[in-house]
Amino acid sequence: MRTRERLERRHDETCARLNDDEFAVVVVVAERMLLGASAYGALDLARDRRDFTNEMVDEAADVLTYGAMRFLQAALRRRRRP
């Protein structure tokens, strides 16, 4: 069996065991991969020269920043309610 076929079988077996919310997360991740491919080209890990550790740190910092901004925005909105 080819690698792609093995991966598809693992995917199907794994996803079959997920509840609806867990499966929705998998779909969002897959959609993000497709969005990245349309912007940057298909992922080719053997040839990709990006430093994924640095990419991960940058993205994590962004998540924390946006989370803090959202938290503060919600707090401000709660205070402004009559």
Structure description:
By secondary structure, this protein is mainly α. 78% of the residues lie in helices and 0% in strands. It contains three helices and no strands. The model has no long low-confidence stretch (mean pLDDT 96).
> Could you list the spans in which at least 5 consecutive residues all have pLDDT below 50?
none
Question: What's the total number of strands?
Answer: 0
Structural class: mainly alpha
The number of helical runs is 3
Helix content range: over 70%
- How large a portion of the residues is in β-strands, by DSSP E? under 5%
Compute the average pLDDT. 96
Summarize the structure.
This protein is an all-alpha fold and 82 residues long. It has 2 domains: 1-45, no CATH class; 50-82.
Present the secondary structure layout:
Layout: H1 3-16, H2 20-40, H3 52-80
Tags for this model:
flat, single chain, mainly alpha, 0% strand, 3 helices, 82 residues, 2 domains
